[in-house]
Amino acid sequence: MNPTVELAGVLNRLSAVDPVLLGDAETVVALQRELERLAAVTTRAVAAFDAGRAWEADGARTASAWLAVRCRMPQESARRRVRLGRALRHM
Prior knowledge:
5 helices; elongated; mainly alpha
């Protein structure tokens, strides 16, 4: 199964949970940690996307421009994600 499909399923189930059940300190910390882990995975994926230059197929001038348009995110956030991905790639 596609990992993003699996992730979507998990997030759908988690979204259906009553927020009151997620409102304790331990769960909030755990959710924040998982959010940061997902951001790290996303940054690694963006780095691979950038390096592979797959964004050129859509006529984008840069990976960050593609990311901003396709993911509907602010241009500066997209630039930051690509810069971080490049930095990680070179570590």
